[in-house]
Amino acid sequence: MPEIVTKHPDIVLQLLKDAGIKCGQGEKQQILRSCPKESFCALPTGELCVFGVKNIASMTQMTAADFTGAPREISMLDWPNAVLIVVVFILGMLVGRIKRRKINR
Fold it and tell me: Are residues 36 and 48 in the same domain?
């Protein structure tokens, strides 16, 4: 379910309320459990959490890197991909060397 960031969270919440969406009314939070109750909106098809710019740090789906465009940190899950690339590179060099020896004979 989406988290929304806006410079004017009060206006967005009011617009959603005006559209008949239940916001800040203590609705049951099934997915966005860490969303502040006053920022939580329950729709028939899902949930929304409206954050102001000052509350970005408490978001759970986005990090500072998402806002700055900075490259994300490399996690341990990325290491298998890096190892695979190195293995394929080494195999390519070995195959190239073997082919070159056969051609030079």
Answer: yes
> Max Cα separation, the chain?
82
Q: What is the pTM of this model?
A: 0.60
Which residues make Cβ contacts (< 8 Å) with residue 28, sequence separation at least 6?
Answer: 42
Tell me the per-residue pLDDT of 5-63, one tens digit each, with 9 for 90 and over. 999 999 999 999 999 999 998 889 999 998 999 999 999 899 999 999 888 888 888 87
**Are residues 21 and 2 part of one domain?**
yes
Report the candidate in 17, 49, 18 with the shortest Cα–Cα distance to residue 33. Answer: 49
Residue 1 and residue 34 share a domain: yes
Q: What length is written for the chain? A: 105
Distance CA 74, CA 1 (A): 25
Same domain, 44 and 90: no
Only one residue has tokens 């806006």, namely 6
**Residues 11 and 24 grouped into a single domain:** yes
